[in-house]
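If you are new to this repository, start here. Below is one unmodified record pulled from the training split, so you can see the exact layout before writing a loader.
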Amino acid sequence: LAVLLCLCATSMVDAKVKLPALISDGMVLQREQPIKVWGTADAGESVQVKFLKNAPPTGVKGGKLKATYTATADENGQWSLTLPAMKPGGPYILQVNDIELKDILVGDVWLCSGQSNMELPVSRVTDMFRDEISAYENTNIRQLKVPNIFNFHAPQTDLPDYVAWKPLTQENVMNFSALGYFFAKAMYEKNNIPVGLINSSWGGTPVEAWISEEGLKEFPKYINDKRQYEDDAYLKSIKQTEGLSFYRWNTSLYRGDAGLHEATPWYAANYNDKDWKTVDLFSTDWGTNGLNPINGSHWFRKEVEVPQDWNGKEATLRLGCIVDADSVYVNGTFVGTVSYQYPPRIYTIPAGVLKAGKNTVTIRLISNNGYPHFVKEKPYKIVCGNEEVSLQGEWKYRLGASMPPAPGMMFFCYKPVCLYNAMIAPLQNYSICGVLWYQGESNSADPALYKKLFPAMVAQWREFFHNPAMPVYYVQITPWQAEGKDRLDRAWFRQCQLELMQEVPNVGMVTTTDAGSEKFIHPPYKIKVGQRLAYWALAKTYGKEGFLYAGPLYKSHQLKENVVEITFEHGSDGLIPENQKLKGFELVDEKGNIVPAEAEIINGSARVKVWNDSVPHPVEVRYCFRNYMEGDLFNNAEIPASPFRVVIH
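And here is the target side for that same chain:
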């Protein structure tokens, strides 16, 4: 009996209430919706929750806030309770038994999801927005970054313990979603209400990865695909095989790379490169044999002069973006490496490495499976204080080792359901205001299927968050040449996204014809996109009036002889540019030929006339209907018109 009593007493002492990772210090709770608090404890344990005001309260919706709320853990150790809806305010303290959570705000919480253009962090856009970002802090804006994890077994109930809410400070800002950052900043400037961002996004992922198994019940192919990966041993075996393949490829590359094994390695400061070829950094001739790309290692060296006053100082080396990987040396000292093509190369040259006069920069570029090159429209320079030295122009070049293409890799995160289970399902009890969605590039090959999958996701998420009218604001994929700027595959996908706005209730689409890039799938102009998402939210979710929140959208047309007159929505205040010919319009003639068209705004109205004198009977009119095409039709809010295609009846 004494032993039993001792065990019981120990159990009571050790009994611990555990909260989910979302319920933590610094969190932002959704205003004007009931607030659910939940967690685990020993079965039958009593849980007391107190919501304390460590700042003057701004009010409570639906009655006075009580001091204490109680719940009892059920037989499985689960407990939950609901606090009344509150107006914006804070900071507050939440006490759950002996746990004290501090610095809690009540405001608006937005789920930011999708693929890489949503995930892309502030650190990747600092070239364009450095001054603005460095001058701004706002601890009323906070982000919780959901880690990139997947699960094929079942919807998960919690996130990893290390997940944390982070305020927007200079210490944290570089890890914020750039799109979320500019959205939240615009929202706060208009509303003066705390903003919480739950950033659950993963580059390259298709929409089906973000939908539950139940949500995909009309798509059995995806469910059957997901079931292949429910065996952890099978996944482990695939990864082991991949790891061995990459190990052998990299070992072979290392052994065969003369630049690493000569008596004086090619990165050494005293290496003599006089016999190397001279190439322009942005030429691609060095990366091919005239027919096919050369995979393997490519070496580049450049001698640069630095000013006398740089001697011994720390500096920053900027090498744009490199396809695929690189290792970089300055005067023989290793300064950095990046293993894949998209991140900007920003390396610190430690104090003492640079010297006045001649210095040598060496790049070992690794091409895995494609055309190796340096991305031209990026900075290539050494920066010290307010001075810089350009690295563009001619470099010395030598092939280190030629290799077959690197082995392929299985991206499990691209498979159906797995991201919903791990990165969305744990959010279920957390009230949110709405969803910001930037995704589509990975589904652009099949727009007809996306027209079914996207509504399925929206419907399933609305049911999941217990909000049948939850707003979902999404971004039309930006212009990008992909496999050819004149191809139409992405044009058809943008048309699909445009039509979805008419077919799915309570959604809105941001147009991006002025925010793309012919060369980059990750354009840096996230401020435009974030602000336009905020316009949609302010107008449609918050009911703010008196401003245009969307770009011109095709509404109707009339054919008058050979001239097509098009009427646009969201152009009632007028379209621009007036009194000049518009770019981006095309007509299709009766034989199916696509020809450029003349176009101009009609008398300051929301109408545009389109014609080509050589096309007496046009059968289609198109605007920016290419993978990459520049148009210039905007409304007076300087929001661009969406690309579109319409058949003329």
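Two things worth knowing about this chain: The longest helix spans residues 232-256. The first strand starts at residue 28 and ends at 30.
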